[in-house]
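Protein entry
_____________
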Amino acid sequence: MNWISSVVRPKISSFWTKRDTPKNLWIKCPETGEMVFHHDLESNGWVVPGSGFHMRMPVPARLAALFDAGGFEAIPTPQVVQDPLKFRDERRYQDRLKDARAKTGREDAVTLAKGTIETLPVTVAVQDFGFMGGSLGMAAGEAIVTGAETALASRTPYVLFAASGGARMQEGILSLMQMPRTTAAIIALREAGLPYVVVLTNPTTGGVTASYAMLGDVHIAEPGALIGFAGPRVIEQTIGEKLPKGFQRSEYLYDHGMVDMVVHRHELRATLARLLRVMMHQDPPQDGAVALPSPETIPEQASEDPVEAMADNSEPAPAKA
């Protein structure tokens, strides 16, 4: 083999070799079609800089951006029966759970954490729509109840970020039973005089909206979030009429008194801190110093392409409870 075949030809061939690039290197805004570099999107809190469209925020980034200096302590939740009904449709429910856990790196749809927001201790629950559409099952219900019990034991406010398609159809009546269970836990918080604040993100629908997501002392919605029980298409088919523009979106619900405020994600942390201090009858920090999230604590890359997560939800639509 001479130098032409061993050196020159490989160098020439390398010009036509396709290079591997990350799937989410550039992300398209669903609203305007604008292409955004993923690092720019992450550094802007998963808000498209040009249009202001709020993409779904990964759970680790959400928690890191919320707590002081990005530090928090994860709260473990009790184990539940994995597949109580031995459910199977096109695939086994156990296989769907395995795929969702591999995809998100979490045991189920709700993650619990505790930390401080502007020095005020807070218990937080975050639903992950990437885990089977954030559907409410036994594990998610147990996590929400555990979060309420933790807030009661530590005498802290309870903040919940809701994002769900409804009850988890694979668990049947056991899923629907989580609605009264979580409602009872929220009532216990209210009787103890502890604040319960709900942040409604895109989307919050079905049995979640019909239970703990609409029982907050204050309801904050992110801009453009879809919030309702049944989807707009189902409602249109049922009543046989065209719905108003923006129906079931945050701004529409604010105008009609269903949510208390619509807050941009960049202002959410400060808004929550101000509300919780008032509700807990606490003064602001005396020195005025607040530990902001450090860039090192916010994950640089999500575990999945957020556009694919919005557009390609392979899970069956959860039953609307």
Summary: The longest helix spans residues 138-154. Residues 74 and 113 are 4 Å apart (CA to CA). The radius of gyration is 22 Å.
